[in-house]
């Protein structure tokens, strides 16, 4: 039992990875659509490459979006609007008009013409309200039919039959003239204008309700393909009606309700493919990114980002498929590049895009666009902490999307008339959403305890509390750290290592010297040496102790592990040579282990660079009269000794890169000492 528990304890990291792998696979399969997947690609405008295709079952031919839009437009154009006719107003208005006759006309006129005028007014009011008076013109065609609602009855009349308020003056003028009442025109117009008012209004509610009912009754299919009918023969060009039939078959196939047996097999198929994709990612990390693979927090972080992108895309697709490119998928390679490296970021991005191919329509087009955009992201964003770089990269990503979409549309449609301008807007929105990567990286740093280049930029500020404390307690060490930081940054740039990380590591590598600053030469301001009263062994222990104290101070101040690595490794397993040789003067058999730093040796290019720069900068202070030849030999001697001791075996740095670092250090030291060409006297 104890052996089993011990074995379980030793392999707990592996068990966790298996659990994470299974959990991620289950979540992704859960998010994927569970319908069947049509096994043929439909290459519009190209020959059918497969064997003759026959209908596996009866299915309806779907109308194209253009046909449905045209049908809706025809319905909207031919739809008859409804108008309410107020049946009570004409009677009341006629009474008001006859009363106005009494008020407007003189008594002498009424004594002679009252009956004739009253008859004319009454007849004219009847004519005005035969089909009603409308206040505003709705800009309909004169012959457009409308429904006139009188109570519960609707009659169909031509729109021109309804009198508009803008036409009333001309209508009255004609009626007065035709009736021979021109001499009473002013009085009659006053009578009508004082009494006549509109009684017809547009019934928007009923009109829209009726229109929506007609639109909802549109048939989205036309015709049926019977089972066994040949759909397309091998070599036939996929276009026109053939393309629509194939598209209809695909839609019917993927929307079928599957039996429990079929459904289970689909789940098995999806599970196998998702597991295979995630397994490739794990194997890649195990072979090429061992440090990432062995860190469960980092593996969890990568898998979390994959699930997050799959979930976000699924939500957008379920909401509206047209917005699928608004999802800022390029955030994934950007984030992983900020925390790890470009190759891991791109590999993870490709795996994620392959998984998303199960979710989105036109999967080949989608995957092509997203993979190209991911490659552009990786190639263009070199320093994420520089805001200008991110904006430039976003512009390039958006441009790639637009160019690729343009090319696909031209290939599929044969012209540019079918391009949808709204798709370009989704590309722009997706590009702008990519800017969210900076606050997202900050959140990830707090949740997962990792460090990005943006955090390194903050740590490189020499006005930070810890560096200011170093400058106050150990000013000589602080000045030394600044010099080493400049050397390390220049060397890292030369061999394409992480220059920002190397600089930050150099700034903090000696913070342990704050504990006993006067025991280090650069901080001794008087001729009194604190080591004079100590034995060589005690002095060596104080010197070695600055590494341990530095780690303690760094952890107390919450410095990231990537920075603490520089404190651990900047002396590797070298010996405190000066005090070791002094001890040997006393005891020839003195063990070197007592004078050796605990290590570990550098395990990255950046930590190897720091070891070289630190040793060279510190030792250069001993040069009395430096010359170009002396500096060259001096740098070669120090770094060659470190190589002989095997200090760079784990740091993945090549001989060529070490030579390049040497070259940079020689040039920088010559600049520091202001060496000039020696002219002959």
TrEMBL record:
Residues 477-619 form the HD domain. Signal peptide: none annotated. Keywords: Membrane, Transmembrane, Transmembrane helix. Gene3D superfamilies: Hypothetical protein af1432 (1.10.3210.10). InterPro entries: HD/PDEase_dom (IPR003607), HD_domain (IPR006674), HDIG_dom (IPR006675), Metal-dep_PHydrolase_7TM_extra (IPR011624), Metal-dep_PHydrolase_7TM_intra (IPR011621), PgpH_phosphodiesterase (IPR052722). The chain crosses the membrane at residues 14-32, 263-285, 297-317, 344-360, 366-385, 390-411, 423-444. This is HDIG domain-containing protein. It comes from Gramella jeungdoensis.
């Amino acid at each position: 039992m104890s052996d089993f528990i011990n074995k379980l304890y030793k392999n707990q990291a592996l068990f966790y990875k298996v659990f994470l792998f299974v959990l991620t696979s289950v979540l992704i399969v859960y998010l994927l659509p569970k319908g069947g997947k049509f096994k043929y690609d439909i290459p519009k405008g190209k020959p059918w490459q497969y064997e003759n295709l026959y209908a596996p079952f009866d299915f309806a031919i779907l109308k194209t979006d253009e046909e449905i839009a045209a049908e809706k437009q025809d319905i909207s154009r031919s739809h008859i609007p409804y108008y309410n006719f107020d049946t009570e107003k004409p009677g009341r208005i006629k009474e008001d008009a006859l009363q106005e006759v009494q008020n407007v006309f003189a008594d002498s006129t009424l004594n002679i013409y009252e009956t004739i005028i009253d008859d004319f007014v009454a007849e004219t009011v009847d004519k005005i309200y035969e089909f009603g008076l409308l206040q505003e013109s709705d800009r309909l065609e004169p012959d457009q039919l409308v429904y006139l609602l009188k109570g519960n009855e609707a009659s169909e009349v031509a729109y021109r039959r309804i009198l508009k308020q803008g036409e009333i003056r001309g209508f009255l003028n004609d009626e007065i003239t035709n009736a021979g009442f021109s001499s009473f025109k002013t009085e009659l117009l006053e009578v009508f204008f004082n009494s006549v008012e509109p009684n017809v209004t547009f019934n928007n509610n009923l009109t829209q309700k009726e229109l929506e009912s007609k639109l909802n009754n549109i048939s989205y299919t036309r015709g049926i393909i019977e089972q066994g009918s040949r759909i397309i023969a091998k070599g036939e060009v996929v276009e026109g009606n053939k393309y629509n039939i194939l598209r209809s078959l695909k839609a019917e196939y993927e929307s079928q309700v599957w039996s429990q047996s079929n459904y289970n097999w689909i789940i098995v198929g999806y599970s196998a493919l998702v597991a295979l994709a995630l397994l490739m990612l794990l194997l890649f990390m195990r072979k090429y990114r061992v440090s990432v693979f062995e860190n469960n927090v980092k593996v969890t972080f990568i898998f979390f980002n994959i699930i997050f992108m799959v979930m976000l895309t699924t939500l957008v697709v379920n909401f509206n498929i047209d917005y699928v490119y608004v999802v800022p998928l390029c955030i994934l390679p950007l984030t992983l590049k900020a925390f790890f490296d470009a190759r891991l970021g791109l590999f993870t991005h490709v795996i994620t895009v392959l998984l998303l191919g199960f979710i989105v329509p036109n999967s080949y087009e989608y995957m092509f666009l997203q993979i190209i955009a991911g490659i552009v992201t990786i190639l263009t964003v070199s320093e994420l902490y520089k805001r200008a770089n991110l904006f430039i990269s976003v512009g390039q990503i958006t441009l790639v999307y637009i160019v690729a979409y343009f090319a696909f549309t031209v290939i599929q449609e044969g012209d540019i008339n079918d391009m949808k301008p709204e798709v370009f807007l989704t590309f722009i929105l997706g590009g702008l959403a990519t800017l969210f990567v900076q606050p997202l990286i900050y959140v990830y740093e707090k949740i997962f305890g990792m460090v990005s280049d943006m955090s390194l930029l903050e740590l490189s500020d020499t006005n930070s509390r810890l560096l200011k404390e170093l400058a106050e307690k150990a000013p000589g060490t602080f000045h030394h750290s600044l010099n080493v930081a400049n050397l390390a940054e220049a060397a890292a740039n030369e061999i394409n290592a992480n220059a920002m990380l190397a600089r930050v590591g150099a700034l903090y590598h000696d913070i342990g010297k704050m504990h006993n600053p006067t025991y280090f030469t650069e901080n001794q301001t008087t001729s009194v040496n604190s080591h004079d009263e100590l034995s060589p062994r005690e002095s060596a222990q104080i010197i070695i102790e600055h590494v341990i104290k530095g780690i303690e101070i760094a952890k107390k101040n919450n410095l990231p592990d990537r920075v603490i690595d520089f404190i651990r490794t900047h002396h590797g397993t070298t010996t405190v040579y000066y005090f070791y040789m002094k001890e040997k003067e006393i005891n020839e058999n003195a063990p070197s282990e007592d004078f050796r730093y605990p290590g570990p040796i550098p395990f990255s290019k950046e930590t190897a660079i720091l070891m070289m720069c630190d040793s060279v900068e510190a030792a250069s202070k001993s040069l009395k009269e430096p010359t170009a030849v002396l500096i060259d030999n001096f740098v070669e001697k120090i770094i060659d000794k470190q190589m002989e001791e095997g200090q760079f075996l784990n740091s993945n740095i090549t001989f060529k890169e070490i030579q390049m670092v040497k070259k940079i250090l020689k040039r920088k030291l010559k600049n520091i000492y202001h060496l000039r060409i020696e002219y002959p006297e």
